Amino acid sequence: MAIAAAITVPLTTPSRRFLASASANPIRFSSPLTAQPKYLKIAAGRGTQCPNFRICAASSMRIEAPEKASPDSFLDRKESGILHFVKYHGLGNDFILVDNRDTTEPKVSPDQAVQLCDRNFGIGADGVIFAMPGVNGTDYTMRIFNSDGSEPEMCGNGIRCLAKFIAELENSRGKRSFTIHTGAGLIVPEIQEDGKVRVDMGEPILKASDVPTKLPPNKDQSVVKARLDVDGSEWNVTCVSMGNPHCVTFGTSQSQDLHVDELNLADIGPKFEHHVMFPARTNTEFVQVFSPTHLKMHVWERGAGATLACGTGACAVVVAAVLEGRAARRCTVDLPGGPLDIEWSEKDNHIYMTGPAEVVFYGSVPL
Which EC class, in a word (predicted)? Predict the structure, then answer.
């Protein structure tokens, strides 16, 4: 394919690397329209031939005024063979959001999602999220494809991004909540007055067979601080499902206190994810305890690898910390991308997650 890309980024926006995919039709990216009116526009030449989703060298660089458009008019565009999207991030966990309200079938296939999520030859993201029609009385349905093309049940940071995306689609302002059907059940995000999103994540699942894990239960029907051999090291793990499986560890039998910044996630993460004890694979959280109300975690996500944040993982971490007697029911959880506020309510046994979700840019890509 030949590429003709135009990337529009506000000069006031922090520097990020945004990579467009390739086509004879132009791919356009524009930043949130609330930014300052001066933009840097990088245009690539049309004539250069490139394979799918590869970037050709820019032939010119110039300062231009942005096209006169609003987010509403951008998202309302209907063009055959063109996917309009908005990229969001929740603490650096980034997603391509697609308006899929007119059909129950995703507009992007798993293979296309892999290409779009590629950070070198695509747009770059941890997953593609679809805002789809609701079922059984819910407002919307959420589906997501990971960067490897797999489909998880739910995503905590992704649901916050979806809530902000839906508010934009509906052109709604201020405090607002939505009921969203997911593979993990009913999830209810609420946009707060300060712009953060508080999400009722439902009840944690602790029964070992439902997580699922093949580790034998050691506390009622749950797996709490159990021994797990990983590549010759014995780790203490607690298994929790937030609709998707999590293995939470605070250290090995030899070293009870982790220093998460010293871990080689790329080495140890896949060994947990594909461990025989987790028949559906697993997300893995490595946790350092600063105080009963302050935790720090690094995560290896099933299907996405090391990410800057994982909302369901932060929820699972607080549940595991409470079960192991390490923390209170409300904690600040520090992730590489920033903090989340997590509460495990004694009143209704639900987990409540509060954190940000921000627009990165708007874009169009040929499929």
Answer: isomerase
